[in-house]
Amino acid sequence: MKRVFPVRLVRLLSEVTGIHHDPDRHYLLDSRLSGLLKSFSLDSLEDLGLLLERTPPDEEPWLAVYDAISTGETYFFRDRAGLDLIFPSLVRSHPARSGPVRLLSVGCSSGEEVYTLALLALVAARLPSVLLEGIDLSSGQIAKAREGVFAQRSVRLVPPGLLERAFIREGHFFRVKDELREVVRFSRENILSFSKPANSYDGILFRNVIIYFEDSSRKKMIEIFYRLISPGGFLLMGSGEFLPDGGAPFHLESHNGIVVYRKK
Ligand SMILES: C[S@@+](CC[C@H](N)C(=O)[O-])C[C@H]1O[C@@H](n2cnc3c(N)ncnc32)[C@H](O)[C@@H]1O
Question: Is the pTM of this model over 0.90?
Answer without folding.
Answer: yes
